[in-house]
Amino acid sequence: MTHKPIQLSNLSLSFPHKTCFDDFTADIHYSDRIAIIGRNGSGKSTLLKMLQGLKLQTYGNINIPTAVTMGYVPQIIEEYSSLSGAERFQEALTKALCNNPNCLILDEPTNHLDSSNRQALLRMLDNYPGTLIIVTHDVDLLERITDQFWHIDNSKIHIFKGHYSDYVSENKIKRGSIEHELYALNRQKKESHKALMQEQHRAAKSRQKGKKSIRQNKWPTIVSDAKAHRAEKTTGRKKEKINEKKCVLQEKLSELRLPKIITPKFSLNATDLGCNSVVSITEGSVGYSKDKILIDEINIQLIQGEHLAITGNNGSGKTTLIKAIMNHSIIIKSGTWLTPKINDIGYLDQHYSTLDNDKSVFQTLVDCTPDWSGNQIRQHLSDFLFFTNETVFAKVATLSGGEKARLSLALIAAQTPRLLLLDEITNNLDIETREHVIQVLRAYPGSLIVISHDEHFLRDINISNRHELSKKNSS
Questions:
Q1: Sign of the C-alpha dihedral, residues 213, 219, 225, 227?
Q2: What is the mean pLDDT of residues 244-254?
Q3: All residues at 6 or more sequence positions from 373 whose CB lies less than 8 Å from its CB, including other chains
């Protein structure tokens, strides 16, 4: 059943410490397929709740026609249930679809889904005839399912209609154009400064000649004074123009909000790490008791610098295998295992469980690098976009998911392990933080084992091979 447009008028969302968006007006037509994107904390999930009347907006109106029947699936948080994330999502989706909604609202639906469940969801959404509103950072979903983007950024919601690849391409063109303009302004500023210095030099020479003429009681004194006066006026005009251009440049930088780039410096490089085998498992098996083998017939050879993806359906034992490589005492192993010492292994998961919530960002790095000076620590943190005192001395517990990801990567760069293990770290990351993770992992010199269902992410970090686990070996 179709519906008349859902109308949003002058919509605003503010909190005491920030404005998420202001004065937003839009219509949502039947069969629109809208993706809401933006940084973590920008108000995406709250906007979904506002559309359902679950949270009152600070200002503005939302008119929902009576013919609109909504189905809503919130974010699935795995650690709060005995069920897996995929099982909880399936339950919530089934409940949302039972009333045949003509407007389906999903909040990060592909988090915690394995590859087969992801593909099943994408097929369902492909064939869904009604209105679709999704908060997601999943590139596959963005490219395949949606054709309209609401980007929450800089206290505004910007609408783009088209495919995701067009959206990315347009942003690259816009960025290139503005960067070219900024370069031209910088060059013009340097040229203006050079001309200004020349004027000041000529003015100084004119004044010097004027003083000499006075001493010699010669007529050119008046001429020299006039030249000096004109030079000072020219200098003032050029200074004013330079200041105006600097203001324009600063305003453009403020409005542009270009994604920052992380260029990490690692404590080890590829030559330090050698070229030996890092992980070697032959005819291995893992489980939680001798009578309960979860995975068998494990054969993995990982050489220095190689990137490996561990794939498989939920429940196939991917995280258990990672724990076995770290030699967790609760895991029972058999076969031949050659793995690095625990101090040579770095581990990062989607919950950032290796971070201490009671410590500050600064203290976290101090504990990792006790020999570093305060200036070294501040410089390293700034490389990972912790610039201000407010963020540097913030407690880990108060950090956003993106900030926790960057802090975890900063620790890995400060004490670079031979082997880095990543367990679904792109879950819940916004697009910008996801790009930061990719930037660091591309530069990481060691070996990498990754659990991920994000195909774009795996390609972007140059995964060279895969080891797929099968549920048929689990019990």
A1: negative
A2: 58
A3: none
Summarize pLDDT for 290-334 with one digit per residue, the tens. Answer: 788 889 999 999 998 899 999 888 888 899 999 999 999 999 999
**What is the helix, strand, coil percentage profile of the chain, to 5?**
45, 25, 30
Closest listed residue to residue 383, CA positions, set 260, 267, 263: 263
Q: Which residue has the higher pLDDT, 174 or 418?
A: 418
* Of 357, 406, 348, residue with least CA distance to 380: 406
Q: Torsion-angle region of residue 235: left (phi > 0), alpha (psi -120 to 50) or beta?
A: alpha
Cα 189 to Cα 241: distance, rounded to the nearest angstrom? 9
User: Is-above-0.90 flag for pTM?
Assistant: no
Query: Environment class of residue 141 by beta-carbon count within 10 Å: exposed (0-12), middle (13-18) or buried (19+)?
Result: buried
Q: What secondary structure does DSSP assign to 330-367, as a single string?
A: T-EEEEEEE---GGGEEEEETT-TTS-TTSBHHHHHHH
Q: What pLDDT does 207 receive?
A: 62
User: Residue 124 is inside which H or E element, if any?
Assistant: helix 115-127
Contact 248, 369 (CB under 8 A): no
- Is residue 32 classed as helix, strand or coil in its secondary structure? coil
What residues pair up with 22 in beta bridges, in sequence order? none
Q: How many residues are there in the chain? A: 475
Give the separation between CA 52 and CA 43, rounded to whole angstroms. 15
The CB density around residue 72, as the number of other CB atoms within 10 Å, is 19
> What DSSP designation does 395 have?
B
Q: How far apart are the first and last CA of the chain?
A: 45
Question: Which pLDDT does position 345 carry in this prediction?
Answer: 94
Q: Between helices 115-127 and 85-97, what is the axis angle to 10°?
A: 20
Residue 432 makes CB contacts below 8 A (sequence gap 6+) with: 39, 259, 402
CA of 128: how far to CAs of 33, 67, 119, 323, in Å? Answer: 10, 17, 14, 40
Token output for 432: 């910008």
Residue with tokens 């620590």: 377
Residue 114, token pair as written in the block: 């394995």
Sign of CA dihedral 201, 206, 212, 214: negative
**At residue 48, does pLDDT exceed 50?**
yes
Burial of 147 (0-12, 13-18, 19+ CB in 10 A): middle
pLDDT of 211 reads 59
The answer to whether 126 and 33 are in contact (CB under 8 A) is: no
